[in-house]
Amino acid sequence: MDAVVHFFQAIPFDQIVIQTLNGIVTGMILALVASGLTLIFGIMDVVNFAHGELFMLGAYIGVLVLAGTGSFWLALIVASLLVAILGAALQIVTLRPLIGRDPLNTILVTFGISLILQNYALWQFGPVARKINEPITTHFNLFYLEYPWYRLVIAGMSASIIGAFWLFLKYGKFGVWIRATTQDRVMAQAMGIPVPLVYTGVFAIGAGMAAASGVLFGPLVGVNHAMGLDWVLKAFIVVVVGGMGNLGGSIAAAIFISLLESYAAIWMNPSQAVIVSFVVLILTLLFRPTGLFVPTPK
Amino acid sequence: MIKHSNKTYWIGFCVIMALLIVAPLVLPEFWRRFLTEILIWGLLAMSSDILIGYTGMISFGHSAFFGLGMYGAAAALLIVSPPNLWIAIGLGLIAAALVSLFVAYFSTRLRDIYFAITTLIFSQIFYVIIFTWTEVTGGENGLSFSRPHLSIPGIYSTPFTNETLHWFVLAVVAGSYLTLRRITQSPFGMVLQSIRENEARTRAIGYPVERYKIVAVMLSGLFAGLAGVLYALQNRFAAPDFVYFLISGETVIFNVMGGIGTLVGPILGAGFFLMLRELLGRIFGEQFPYLIPLGFIFISMIIFLPQGILGFARRWLNR
Fold first, then answer.
1. pLDDT greater than 80 at residue A290
2. Residue to test with chain B: of A115, A234, A261, A268, most B Cβ within 10 A
3. Which of A8, A101, A140, B217 has the greatest count of CB atoms below 10 A from its CB?
4. Cβ contacts (< 8 Å) between A115 and chain B: which residues?
5. pLDDT at A9 over 70
6. Do the chains contact at B295 and A119, CB–CB below 8 Å?
7. Residue A266 has pLDDT above 70, yes or no
8. Is pLDDT above 60 for A281?
């Protein structure tokens, strides 16, 4: 009995609340990154290795626009638009010629793009991390911490971007095209949907979402050229755990994994807390290889 | 006809071998070392070709096998005294085999597109472990050790010189090449190629595709580990940088540049890549981001020249 009491006293409830908040915040950002990734995969059958670099590039454009204009929200919009245009251009130049070839080629091409973008960022901006200032600097008290409101704003913004995107898929004309193409590419084409345009559009939207999350997340960590790989790895884990091409599953998995990592960080060194998500991935691959949130196929 | 082309093949093989054997005697030290490194990276690329070119699975995790071979050899050289070459090779191979079994078991459970992702994630797990487990692996600084003697147990033992090291590497790489070539032409290799061409049909015929894939990944990992051991012998250190994703990425680039599914191509690709890097470094200075132009070449080769340099040369010769 004494041991049980001692056990409950040993749980740091204040830390758990704080880490729950942190987990949800990173989870929402991760969901935003992963939903772009899973969208591109679900529709184009392309595993976008350059997704993390688009995230990174978005953050850098955010840094530049913020330095030029001083407006964070303008930076967010400009970065998303520019990276979306870049994404469309990349899709037209590199991925469109590969339609109809082995999908493995698309992995190679996007990997090449990620190499170029990453090294370009390193060359252009140097290895020192840049900082994006938070647009909202007020705090509220949470136990012994002053918790920044901005983190909650990020979670809200990510949720609303994902929500808006969902509405767009559900009711927008282009959104309906996207869903039709996902369901049956050939049939969609036969019904007069411009499938190549849908591909380009989807890639642009995914890229824009990655850039938006880059700008939003920028203030929490430094912006540097290598941030893309970390995020794309996490997003890949999320996408595999959530079921590839499954938007809802990816969002759920993003929050689930981020929460687990935050809790693990109470007892472990944060760089080792990453291993928790690896363990989740391994368990998923062992028992539910098609994803945690998908009914097991018969 | 077949006999004739076979004869040309062996003549070509012997000529290239002869050139590579003579090379360290004529080349200055820098280029000798460069050539040895090309051979080692070529072995790594060749091991990955078993997966990319023959089985149709892209591995983005070869750095894990390479690095574990390296750290396995490092462990043997640091623990066993006096350092023994064969124990180092053995331990390196065991480490690489264990890791590749682990990776193979989990990452072949999903279809090929996931394979690239899961191997990348797994190699990054090993990177994090090696990077953070400072007491055992030396963390960021890695491990350094002395080079063992070239020995045949009980008979002969002499320190490596630059030339003998080159010949040793050459012998291992050539031996691996011949072994891999034999494997790809064996019934087992044929099954792998049929998995590449049509996985569903191969399964329908009754081959246990998953088991074949696991063996292919292990085989590939084993030779990648061997390359890691050779690299450790050459440079006398093991560092977490070699477990990092970039190495896996470069391995894939070697393959695509040289020509996948040819075994020789990847070695050629490694040579081409390293030469270009050296050249760019000399023209524009060490700080030049050589991966930007190489990335452009890489992408245009995938789009316009998917057979790589070797495939292109072959077509051009046959014209």
1. no
2. A115
3. B217
4. 249, 291-292, 294-295, 298
5. no
6. yes
7. yes
8. yes
Give a yes or no: residue B172 inside a domain: yes
- The answer to whether residue B317 sits within a structural domain is no
In the structure, what pLDDT confidence band is assigned to residue A4 with cuts at 50, 70 and 90?
low
Could A111 and B124 be called an inter-chain contact, meaning their C-beta atoms sit closer than 8 Å?
no
Residue A96 is predicted with a pLDDT of 85
Cross-chain Cβ contact B302/A111 below 8 Å: no
In which domain, by residue range, is B167 found?
33-244
Which of A38, A95, A111 best probes binding to B when mutated, by most B CB atoms within 10 angstroms?
Answer: A111
Contact check, Cβ <8 Å, A285/B118? yes
Q: Which helix (H) or strand (E) holds A148?
A: strand A145-148
How far does the CA of residue A98 sit from the closest CA of chain B (Å)? 7
Q: Higher pLDDT residue, A12 or A190?
A: A190
Separation in Å, CA of B192 to nearest CA in chain A = 17
Q: How confident is the model at residue B215 (pLDDT cuts 50, 70, 90)?
A: very high
Domain total of chain B:
1
A228 contact residues in B (CB cutoff 8 A):
none
Chain B CB contacts of A120 under 8 Å are: 289, 292
Q: Who contacts A100 (Cβ-Cβ below 8 Å, separation ≥6)?
A: none
Residue of chain A minimizing CA distance to B198 = A102
Would you say residue B197 lies in a domain? yes
Give the pLDDT score at B1. 43
Domain regions of chain A by residue span: 23-287
With CA atoms as reference, the chain A residue closest to B257 would be A108
Q: Could you tell me if residue B148 is left (phi over 0), alpha (psi between -120 and 50 degrees) or otherwise beta?
A: beta
Does the pLDDT value for residue A181 go beyond 90? no
Nearest CB among B116, B132, B292 relative to A47 is that of B116
Tell me how many residue pairs between chain A and chain B have CB atoms under 8 A apart: 103
Q: Which of A98, A119, A286 sits opposite B291 (nearest CB)?
A: A119
Residue of B nearest to A112 (CA): B295
How many degrees, rounded to 5, is the angle at CA A83 between CA A73 and CA A204?
115
pTM greater than 0.95: no
Across residues A217-222, what is the average pLDDT? 82
Three-class SS of chain B: CHHHHHHHHHHHHHHHHHHHHHHHHHCCHHHHHHHHHHHHHHHHHHHHHHHHHHHCCCCCCHHHHHHHHHHHHHHHHHHCCCCEHHHHHHHHHHHHHHHHHHHHHHHCCCCHHHHHHHHHHHHHHHHHHHHHCHHHHCHHHCEECCCCEEEECCCEEEECCHHHHHHHHHHHHHHHHHHHHHHHHCHHHHHHHHHHHCHHHHHHHCCCHHHHHHHHHHHHHHHHHHHHHHHHHHHCEECHHHHCHHHHHHHHHHHHHHCCCCCHHHHHHHHHHHHHHHHHHHHHCCCCCCHHHHHHHHHHHHHHCCCHHHHHHHHHHHC
Q: Is residue B280 included in any domain, yes or no?
A: no
CATH of domain A23-287: 1.10.3470
Contacts of B308 in chain A (CB under 8 A): none
What are B309-312's contacts with CB under 8 Å, separation 24+? B309/B257, B309/B258, B309/B259, B309/B265, B309/B268, B309/B269, B309/B272, B310/B258, B310/B259, B310/B262, B310/B264, B310/B265, B310/B268, B311/B259, B311/B262, B311/B265, B312/B259
